[in-house]
Amino acid sequence: MKAIKLLFISMMLVSYGSFAQEKEAKEEPKAEEHANINKFRQLYQEFSTPNQYRSASGAPGPQYYQQRADYEMDIRLDDENHHIYGYETITYTNNSPDVLDYLWVQLDQNMRAKDSKTPLIEGGGVQPFMQPSGFAGEYLSEPFDGGFNILKVLDKSGNPLKYMINNTMMRVELPSKLKTGKEFEFDIEWDYNINNHVEGRGRSGYEQFPDGHRAYVIAQFYPRMAVYNDVEGWQNSQFYGRDEFALPFGTFEVNITVPADHWLDGTGKLTNRKDVYSKTELARYEQAQKSFENPVVIRTQQEAEKLAMMPGSKSTKTWKLKADYVRDFGWTSSRRYVADAMAVKVGGKDIMAVSIYPPEGNPLWEQWSTKAVAQTLKSYSRMTFDYPYHKAISVHAKNQGMEYPMICWNYGRPDADGNYSDRVKFGMISVIIHEVGHNYFPMIVNSDERQWTWMDEGLNTFVQYVAEQDMGENYPASIEGLDAYPSRRGPAAKIVPYMAGDQRYIAPIMSKGLNTYQFGSNAYGKPGTALNILRETVMGRELFDYSFRTYSQRWMFKHPTPEDFFRTMEDASAMDLDWFWRGWFYTTQFNDMGIESVDKYYVSSEKNQAMKDLQKQRNIDDSRIPQMVYMVKEGSEDYNESLKGQEPSEVVGELKSYLMDNFTASERAAMKSPKFFYEIKVVKPGGLVMPIIIEYTYADGTSETVTHPAEIWRLNDKEVGLSKASTKEIVKIVIDPKLETADVDTSNNTWPAAAEVSKFDQMKK
Ligand SMILES: [Zn+2]
User: Fold this and answer.
1) Which of 47, 433, 438, 755 is in the most buried spot, having the most CB atoms within 10 Å?
2) Domain total for the chain?
3) How far apart are CA 190 and CA 205, in angstroms?
4) Which keywords does this chain's UniProt record carry (predicted)?
5) What SS3 state is found at 760?
6) Model-wide pTM > 0.85
7) Using an 8 Å Cβ cutoff, are 745 and 754 in contact?
């Protein structure tokens, strides 16, 4: 009997519900509410189909392959003429199932060639104001001749190979087809003029000091193999200067000859330390290998300054470096360098954290650089995998922030008198954490930077934030006078100005870097913040961290795509995050939520207007209506004061007998006894879907926070109603009380509406 009655009621309510929806749909047939653009639809159209190379789980598939390029190089630096000479032997291994007719080699320095196309794709017109150096560069000086001179391209037997240079890419014709599993060895000889990176910008070059000496940070200095893989074929998209690099892994054996008084370091193990270090320097280095708390200076500031006062050495030394499995090679050299190092324990192994800087970097650099390197290795290893290399070097180069395997260039220079502001100090520590962090993304988790800037910059910016907070905790002296490390990116609220900005100048994260506006916010800030929100607010740390580590470890020393990341995060967590990827990565929508209304309801046994309307509409007579629990809105025509704060089972007899019939006395005693019922209408004028985090404050001063998953928006993207029952009266409701969701307008987030005064404050901001 009871079962039949319940069935009738539920059928009636279902039909009432669908009637209401139908009516709404007829009144407002909005195309955007159509299922095809539902924000929770699966990402099948955007994602490529999984295959034997890349699995649907986001892991490398059973047939996953990657190419290999091994290099042997002899490099000579002509310091006086800032010119570089190189000879390399590349052994290229074709692990793909495809037969190759030619190879593509990257000639990145050709971006600085006289006939470079880079200046010709700038359509911004005349700049209204320029620095003298910029003006001179644009209008007065002849273009710098910094492209590669390719002198020879030879096969193993010394026969010339046919090649063709298309701007920054060189196609080398293979004498015979390169089949699966086979390798091809060839030589390239080249030279080029090194640019002044302080004057002309750029990721490598030299800085000229007033004493006549220079410091070199050298990268993209050799013709580098392009990537060939299952998603791009040859990644031979031209280098215009912004989108970085895509490179295969391989072994590097590099001999670099520089003036004998230079200090040099680079990617790989120094295999002839005894030939290039003095006895004193060797002894200091051995001491540094045992120092875990503080760096040990290997070449002192005094020693560097003494060398800088003399004319440069005419004799040379050759530094030999060997790296086992890296995607690139960078190095630095100068007679003006100070160097220090300390050991860091990561995963049971001792890693050397190293800093190299001209005296101009002190006193800041001797104090914080090596410690920032050490903190980076610890934090990133915790979030991803144990750092696999034996060292990580931070080099101070003016205005630079650039990364290579085991070595990176970083800015942060005190004034001439040695003073520095907090801005310079935290800028320096942050850039070191960021660039050393790039060892993980993209040097080891080797994504395609040319195509997807966010895959290394966004992931790296996210872990950078975690490491910065660790830095503040583990080295309290670094944040003297502050509660926490002042991270520039990471917290949700910091991305609001960008998200709320002019839509004409915002591109989705899933865009090629070259084609985006506001590059820093697009490729660093927004994805970094999105991942922080995903971790703190959507997934929680445990699920996020496990999934993020799974991605990092699955793709360590491999080439992941965006889908591999998106899929792994879902695969390892049992969370459908398609809505999150869609909103944050594929659109430029922003989050804006607000409280539209809050209504109080009480329980009544008297038929209310909603039931009367339904009866009339469906022609149902009273005999077919069982006793219901009627919800009556305060202030409505059904409402009277006597309903306020009543116990529901005292008001509705049928409810009381239902409870008596179906529950034991102890079960009934354990039941809640709400007297206040609230309906909170939340509106979402912003397009982005996010969880609703809502804080209720009760009359007795206590409060409670409830998080509704983003799926609450799955059937209505504009407005939802929350129902909340309580034994205590609610006096205040706030959406997103801790500013976790990057809500662009918080003036509508509070009920009762925040006072006019605070609105005025917000406008002033
Ligand atoms: Zn970066």
Assistant:
1) 433
2) 3
3) 17
4) Signal
5) helix
6) yes
7) no
